[in-house]
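Intended use. Records like the one below are meant for learning the mapping from a protein sequence to its folded structure. Do not use them to infer anything beyond what is encoded.
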Amino acid sequence: MKRRAIAALLSGLACPGAGQIYNRQYIKGGILVAATLAMVAVLFFKVWGAMLDAVASVPPDELLSDVFGLAHRIVEGQGDFYGGLGWAFFAVWLYGVVDAYVMGGRENA
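Structure written out for the chain above:
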């Protein structure tokens, strides 16, 4: 295995797009990083909104007594969304890792 391919592979494992940036494929790497950050932002805002709704529906004296119940309220009914987002993130990550390794193994990369 070439050292460059291994370095690109490890970079891609750490963060989608990092392996492409290591391979000097800045546009492709930037797109993968941006896609990953967009998915994280969507997840954050979706969970934040659900959390605010769940917290508002619980009496203040019960907030800390049932933390797991509160967490369940936040994610209930959203399993398809979280599952789809998880698969999308996995697909972007896997593409980034495989592409970084393949392109890092080429002489002209």
